[in-house]
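Researcher: Next entry in the queue.
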Amino acid sequence: NKPVVALESTIITHGMPYPHNLSTAKEVEAVVRAEGATPATVGVIEGEVHVGLSSEELDHLACCKSSLKVSRRDLPYVISKALSGGTTVSATMIAAHKAGIPVFVTGGIGGVHRNGDNSLDISADLTELGRTPIAVVCAGVKSILDIGRTLEFLPFIFLLETLGVCVATYGTSNNFPAFFSRQSSFTSPYQVVNPEEAAGLIASILSLGLRSGVLIAVPVPEEHAAAGQQIEEAIRAAVTEASAKSITGKDATPFILQKVNVLTKGKSLQANIALIHNNARVGSQIACKLSKQMTERKLRSKTHYHGKLSSNSESNIVVIGGINVDFIAKGKMKTLHFGQTNPGSVCQSFGGVGRNIADCLSRLGHRPLFVSATGADSHSDAVLNYCKHMDTSSVARLEEQNTATYCVVINESGEMSLGLGDMDIHQQITEHYVSQFEKQLSSATLVCLDGNVPVSTIDYVCSVAKQHNINVWYEPTDLDKACKPFLSDAWKSLSYSSPNLAHFLYLLLLPSSLEEVLHVAVTLSRPLLEHIHCLVVTLGAKGVLVCGEHVAGSVNLQLRKQKRVRLCALHYPALNVTTEEIMNVSGAGDSLAGALMAGILQGRDTHSCVRMGLLAARLSLASPHPIAPTLTLDSVDPIKVQTQNWCKPTFLWIG
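Model: Structure for this entry, 655 residues:
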């Protein structure tokens, strides 16, 4: 949503003589930058469409004698032949739209040529306005054209495309400008008086998803309008000569402009340059206001929940982490043989630690704000479609990035043999992006971070948590990421963490043996509990160890309110799951963590919270999805699940 302004390049290749064309192009870019926007001059160089030209590329187009005038119809040919050319209004609109730039500044649009009712010489700019959602800021229809017939032609285009091009004059009058003249005998349907109003109009069109553009006509500055009559007389003479010489189509405009410049002794060129500078100034101001409005709209939309929520949904939770498309390959043998094909089954599901936890919480009656990033690709379409029950409005979709994918190979008994992941996009969940949600972070009941996000983002969230006394749950995800908060003092701002035993040992770089699991885990938790309120150590088939402050013979899972007196731990055995039942091991830990969070936020006692987590983990193991679609509050309520006999947890003091 940063302000960017697209600029055409036929003014460089065909609109002005050298060196005026080059100096004007650079001056217009300077005007855009001076107003706080980024210029993106569009051109075709050796068969490639460039959105944004370097100084050398501008020089190349300005000096190139063989440059073509490239409209929509010319793009395929020019690209296929690796030619160069300046893009017209229609071609520039196409490129800008594909690059995600909503504002385009030009001198004037094409339209119906004079005597066009006989020649049928009508510019492609008009049809492009009817099918490409771009705001074109210009001085109206080019003066060499038939303004009246152009405006009469526009409604026909609207009907033809079953769309509408919104036309508005910029300023205090709704009179449609005549390029070099501030007034014509025609009136615009609408009027916008300042950049804010113009930006609001564009934002409305974009939000409605209309496939047509908007034309904002900006009158030429008064000091340059005086030459309008002289220029109009020169245009008539030039048009007459062009007709006599049978010069039509895309050759007509360059001929007429050059002839008018000669007849007016350069006054038309000076007025043209002033007009373009003015359009660039106004267009850039509109782009800046539009950027601000779109950012504000996006942030407002993130605070509005959609759909029916349960009575527990008022808890304010933020989850920051990854989204993955998972491919799970399960072998049919206990031992997999590397270097050869093994019999098995392969299925696709949607995961990512952050996504899994947000999914789990959403199914258990909450509505977490989920902050993440995906590519703008088919994987992103698929996963976001699957996550319709979640609030994914804060997930950034990034062009030229791949949605994270993860492939895990498990053996017959469900143990992971190998995992491969393309997770680079998680580095785009940056401190800068997450800081947009500081208001939500600073008022959250609980913030959950997964270890996929960059260290700088973790540090930032922990600093906000420390400042506002917010509870943060850190989910390490894997060995390499377990240590991220511990690279600084950020870990001291954590309230909860849920490492597995391997993560736990890695954090403290101490060895252990299977026989000493509980003793070692309890011992190692002691220094971390100086600052972290509660540790939930998952032990795989051996269950869960919960470590924290002692309250009435149990561990206090609820948000801390007073200084702890003594520390203890509770060991809960895992629930029985047969090898045949196990379909997926990638979401059990996330399901356990998400259900634990839900229990804590609902104010349940420790036993109930942990048992909710264990039931959710069992559902996950037996499902092809990391978070079982059958997961509901009733399905993990220890009281309502009558078939489960609960073992008493083992109590241990932490000395």
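Model: Residues 4-226+270-293 form a domain with the Indigoidine synthase fold fold (CATH 3.40.1790.10).
Researcher: Noted, moving on.
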